């Protein structure tokens, strides 16, 4: 029977779409697992940023995986059933090209994986995070290679091969478990929104502190209230709490010292509790670490670090 009688553009694009979904799922799954490893097994020599930064990185690959992977499973099942009902489609050139290219790409990935393993071993970088990541890449490449080689060699459906059927089910279970765990690590939408509000509060306090310092340098006195910082020329206006829209608390505690207070919804220390080793954080995060609830930050201006202007403004 002529191959073109039962094959057409739909078959070509269906197989092409399945391979695209496969690659997207693989890259997203790799990104999720790598970020989880960075959370639990941070390498001291690698600056991954805070756990908040890593959690933010989890969201996009998780979103891709949640949408693309189910579509890939459904499309693969559809194609398998279609080929079983129309055996002549096994010889579709586009199908064979894509399958062999996938085998080629996974073989290259496995070779590169092994080369990287040997190189890092010789370089003294054979750490736990590296071993875990290299193992994940090897496992993903090997699973894809085994599955697609089986498709090319066997002329039966997945259900007719109990061993391969269980193999595919196990892979699906692992991916779903990773997605669930990734959602747990990324945090709930409510907690993330609360954290973003707190990040804005910290940014506002940093700006206020800078303006107070500039005010003292210019006038050699602290402002009596935050309203004194208003400057129509520079365009600076006092920021308000992004959630409650009330003014931040400010009071002087000396000639060159003051306090800024605000109510936080989250605990900044939680960003450092997951990793087994301390994660590097920025100076601002250290200066503005806070607990949940009302927190006050005491500041004192050092004239040696922030000398007064030569001609004070009265």
User: What is the total number of structural domains?
Assistant: 2
Continuous helix count: 7
Main sheet: strand order: 1-2-3
Average pLDDT reading? 82
Question: Can you describe this structure in just a few lines?
Answer:
With 314 residues, the chain is mainly α.
Chart the SSEs and their pairings:
Blueprint: H1 9-40, H2 51-85, H3 93-122, H4 128-153, H5 162-186, H6 189-219, E1 249-252, E2 257-264, H7 283-287, E3 293-300
Antiparallel strand pairs: 1-2, 2-3
Explain how this protein is built:
The protein is mainly α. It folds into two domains: 3-187, no CATH class; 190-300, no CATH class. 59% of the residues lie in helices and 6% in strands. It contains seven helices and three strands, in the order ααααααββαβ. It has a three-stranded antiparallel β-sheet with strand order 1-2-3, with helices on one face. Strand 1 (249-252) and strand 2 (257-264) form a beta hairpin. Helix 1 (9-40) packs parallel to helix 3 (93-122) and helix 1 runs antiparallel to helix 4 (128-153).
For the structure shown, list the relevant keywords.
single chain; 314 residues; mainly alpha; 2 domains; three-stranded antiparallel beta sheet; 59% helix; 6% strand; elongated; disordered N terminus
């Amino acid at each position: 029977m002529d191959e073109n009688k039962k094959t057409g553009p739909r078959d070509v694009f269906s197989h092409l779409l399945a391979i695209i979904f496969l690659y997207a799922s693989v890259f997203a799954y790799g990104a999720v697992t790598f970020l989880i490893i960075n959370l639990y097994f941070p390498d001291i020599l690698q600056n991954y940023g805070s756990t908040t930064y890593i959690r933010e990185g989890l969201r996009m690959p998780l979103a891709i995986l949640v949408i693309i992977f189910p579509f890939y499973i459904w499309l693969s099942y559809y194609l398998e059933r279609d080929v079983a009902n129309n055996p002549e489609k096994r010889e579709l050139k586009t199908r064979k090209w894509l399958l062999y290219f996938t085998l080629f790409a996974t073989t290259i990935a496995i070779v590169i994986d092994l080369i990287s393993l040997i190189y890092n071993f010789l370089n003294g970088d054979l750490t736990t995070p590296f071993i875990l990541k290299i193992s994940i890449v090897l496992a993903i490449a090997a699973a894809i290679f085994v599955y697609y080689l089986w498709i090319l060699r066997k002329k039966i459906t997945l259900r007719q091969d109990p061993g391969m059927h269980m193999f595919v089910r196990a892979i699906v279970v692992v991916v779903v478990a990773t997605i669930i765990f990734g959602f747990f690590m990324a945090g709930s939408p409510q907690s993330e929104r609360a954290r973003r509000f707190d990040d804005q509060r910290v940014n506002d306090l940093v700006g206020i502190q800078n303006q107070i310092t500039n005010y003292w340098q210019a006038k050699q006195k602290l402002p009596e209230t935050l309203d004194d910082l208003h400057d129509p020329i520079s365009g600076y206006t006092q920021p308000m709490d992004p959630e409650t829209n009330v003014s931040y608390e400010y009071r002087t505690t000396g000639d060159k010292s003051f306090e800024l207070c605000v109510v936080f919804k989250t605990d900044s220390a939680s960003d450092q509790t997951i990793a087994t080793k301390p994660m590097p954080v920025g100076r601002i995060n250290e200066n503005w670490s806070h607990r949940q609830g009302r927190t006050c930050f005491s500041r004192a201006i050092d004239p040696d670090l922030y000398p007064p202007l030569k001609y004070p403004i009265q």
